[in-house]
TrEMBL record:
Residues 102-193 form the Large ribosomal subunit protein bL25 beta domain. This is Large ribosomal subunit protein bL25. GO terms for molecular function: 5S rRNA binding; structural constituent of ribosome. It holds the Pfam family Ribosomal_L25p. This is one of the proteins that binds to the 5S RNA in the ribosome where it forms part of the central protuberance. Residues 6-94 form the Large ribosomal subunit protein bL25 L25 domain. GO terms for cellular component: cytosolic large ribosomal subunit. PANTHER family: RIBOSOMAL PROTEIN L25/GLN-TRNA SYNTHETASE, ANTI-CODON-BINDING DOMAIN-CONTAINING PROTEIN, RIBOSOMAL PROTEIN L25_GLN-TRNA SYNTHETASE, ANTI-CODON-BINDING DOMAIN-CONTAINING PROTEIN. Keywords: Ribonucleoprotein, Ribosomal protein, RNA-binding, rRNA-binding. CDD domains: Ribosomal_L25_TL5_CTC.
Length: 212
């Protein structure tokens, strides 16, 4: 399992103008840390360090060691605000993690055995993913980096739902507690869609001739 750590500094100069200066002049990303029975704290993180961490998918669903002015605490990344047109992080939100308290996190789905999927190999079907991650609730110590979706036994016309996911011990999908209507599809195998030109359709040049 990968260990993630970030260094941050307390930020006292607040407001849109101050945030703009941080990003433009200092190469820093404004952020906030909240939760854990403590007051929210405004911080700044080196954009280069944050962008490097974001290259790893596990960073989005992993407990992060955040050092603020040398004081370390465990946090989770809860939200990112990206620039609408440029590859730039505008703001980040981090939630403090408290041991023994459940957290709710979006965890990536990893689809495995797609090449051996029965609906693909035997029936020529196509796999479609309707989710790329799933919201789970668990204790910080039980937080998985990802959840596998085994497609090997999925036949043509079959749908994999949230309730079909094999969850690690201590991990739950809160949506399932809201009833059958929230047991959403995760993936399916459907027939390949092939565009077939009708033999009865007139050719383009024939249509043009008849119009003259």
């Amino acid at each position: 399992m990968v260990d993630f750590s970030l260094n941050a500094n307390t930020r006292d100069d607040l407001g849109k103008g101050a945030s703009r200066r941080l990003r433009r002049n200092d190469g820093l990303v404004p952020a906030i840390v909240y939760g854990g029975n403590k007051e929210p704290q405004s911080i700044s993180i080196a954009a280069r360090e944050l962008n490097k961490a974001l290259e790893n998918e596990a960073f989005y669903s992993h407990v992060i060691k955040l050092s603020v002015d040398g004081k370390k605490e465990d946090v989770l990344l809860k939200a990112l605000q990206r620039h609408p047109a440029k590859p730039r992080i505008m703001h980040a939100d981090f939630l403090r993690v408290v041991a023994g308290h459940e957290v709710t996190v979006h965890v990536p789905l990893h689809f495995i055995n797609e090449d051996n999927c029965v609906g693909v190999k035997k029936s020529g079907g196509v796999i479609s993913h309707t989710m790329t991650d799933v919201e789970v609730t668990c204790l910080p110590k039980d937080l998985p980096e990802f959840i596998e979706v085994d497609m090997a036994g999925v036949d043509l016309g079959d749908i994999v739902h949230l309730s079909n996911l094999k969850l690690p011990k201590g991990v739950a999908v809160p949506a399932l507690a809201q009833g059958a209507d929230h047991d959403l599809p995760v993936a399916n195998v459907h027939a390949a869609r092939v565009a077939v030109e009708s033999e009865d359709a007139p050719a383009a040049d024939e249509g043009e001739e008849s119009a003259e």
